[in-house]
Amino acid sequence: MHRYLTELVGTFFLVLTIGLTTIQATAMAPLAIGSVLMVMVYMGGHVSGGHYNPAVTLGVFFAGKLSAGDMLAYWVSQVVGAFLGALAVLGLVAETFAPAPGPEVGLWAMAGAEVLFSFALVLVVLSSAVSAATHGNSFYGLAIGFTVMVGAWAVGPISGAAFNPAVGVGPTALHALRAGGSWGSLWLYVVAPLAGGALAAAFFRFQEAGRS
Prior knowledge:
By secondary structure, the chain is mainly α. The chain has helices at about 1-25, 30-45, 55-60, 70-95, 105-130, 140-160, 165-180, 185-210.
């Protein structure tokens, strides 16, 4: 249970930071988002692995480092944490939010951006925090946080830079229920990051096989 609660808390603070920096148009928001992910990874990495993202959990599962039962429990914890994070944003600034693509961005551009940077994120997680070759290092949180920061700056205007199905589901659900927001793009914020995570796991296994 302690692992699942850790995933909930870490995802909560990730979504809280995303929501507050987005709504308030905070300068250098990607730096804040990458930084909160970094510190939450250091907070919970030794307990749950510090995933806070169903795509990361899927990648860890496909890499053979997590059971199917734990994967499903992690997913539930992450989505609940994301919803509670969005609810806390509503309580603090009286607004809801949801990830959304840029104006006139096409489906393939949006999907491509989410797949590519989800792939990068999950591959960095697996390589820096899961691989036996990097076991015990102290840089994994920094590497993971910086990957999200780079992705947010690079493709935020294209896809909204979710790279995380929980970041899609939790805020979108509250935005739709509370403010009549659209569910239209939600499927893509679920499918594209999971696809990127699965591809990253396959590439990670290929890398690891090449080392032996």
